Amino acid sequence: MTDQKNPRTPVSDAATMPSSQPPDSSAKSDLTTSSTLSVAPESSKDNPPTSAAPKTKPLTSPVSRTAQKDQSKNWLLLGRTQGQRGAEIVAGLRATIDPTPENRALARFAGQIAAGKTTALNPEQVGVGFLIARPLLFRKLIDQAAASDRPLTIVELAAGFSARGLHLAHEQPTWRVIEIDLPDVVTEKQLRLRDAHSRIPTNLIWRAADLGAVPLAEVLGGEQVDVITAEGLLMYFNPDEQRQILRSVSGSLRSGGVFIFDVGWKQGAEQAARAQSSFDLFSKHAGDLSLGLLKDVEEAKTRYAETGFEQFTVHVPSELATTLAVRAPDVDLSVLVVAKKPSENPPAVSTAAELPTTKSG
To answer: What domains sit in the chain, N to C, each tagged with a CATH number?
Structure first.
């Protein structure tokens, strides 16, 4: 949101709010033969009252690696932090392959130059289809998870320069859409939308925070929400850090809430090896994306057990795209995961069938 007296001055919600109780991670896992993991909660403590929020310690202190400022790696003038540089390159790629007015407004010239350099090293355009398909698949899964007649609150972690939150807020005026990202990214995004004369709906809220150093519950002020997404975030973290993120997210979801995220996929990385120089250039600016690669679907289901969720549905994008009538990506650089928090009153029949389950090969 912006200061009405000075449209060039962005105003972000403060990220210094009371913390809350930790999510219940005592649930035991029951691995199934499909790509869905069911976890049976031991008690009804999985849904702490909304007035309480988890006291989840930060991943690092005082600044996470995505927020560390390193001007020596900013020779393309993409940003002072690893997180902003990655967001700028992705925005540049998005504006190149899908030049909608919003995508063009949210990409800066330096990002498009960097995107051009990465694509020049990738003449076969490996991964371009994935970058087109992934946000569409996320939107489809959000719509399914948010199928309700009541007003909902949707939180997008590491929203970057994606226009999805803007579109959601416009299309669903009864929803609250909260975007969270590093302060530099939030500031730039607000200014670019203002400069493009974009109409900002009142139900779109920005909060600036380094979620590697500030607990999510603190940023949300102890509020528990319906759906949380993290597109292109968890691949920056190792498995232990990923589990900690899931525990933090679980504590900020209402009973039955859903977390939609993606994780790097080893099989996809191997398929994309012929474009390795392009990915190396991206990593040089944005950071190592191979820290938490998953080997297969079974590892996905076991890695995130006991993080406060009762069920995980793992989707291979190329297979999910066929189910959801989206053009299949050329390579699966990550897998999408839908994690469901236990319901206060579990139904007699699991609601997992409401979300399409993609089988692995």
So the answer is: 28-70+148-269+289-354 (3.40.50.150)
At position 8, the amino acid (one-letter code) is R
Q: What share of the chain is helix, strand, coil (3-state, %, to 5)?
A: 40, 15, 45
Nearest-angstrom CA–CA distance, 34 and 338: 14
Half-sphere exposure of 295 (CA within 13 A, CB side): 4
In the block, which residue shows the tokens 């076969």? 124
Placement of tokens 């968890």 in the chain: 234
What is the pTM for the complete model shown? 0.74
Q: Cβ distance 23 to 247 under 8 Å?
A: yes
Residue 37 pairs in a beta bridge with: 31, 312
Ordered strands of the 334-340 beta sheet: 28-31, 36-40, 311-315, 334-340, 253-264, 225-230, 153-157, 176-181, 204-208
pLDDT per residue over 47-88, tens digit each? Answer: 333 333 334 444 444 455 454 445 444 445 555 666 677 788
Closest CA to 73 of 60, 94, 88, 58: 88
Whole-number Å distance between alpha carbons of 112 and 90 = 9
| Residue 47 and residue 254 in contact, taking contact as beta carbons nearer than 8 Å | yes
**In the numeric block, which tokens belong to residue 64?**
């996470």
DSSP labels, 298-359? HHHHHHTTTSS-SEEEEE-HHHHHHHTT-PPPSS-SEEEEEEEPPPSS--SS-GGGGSPPPP
Per-residue DSSP letter, 92? H
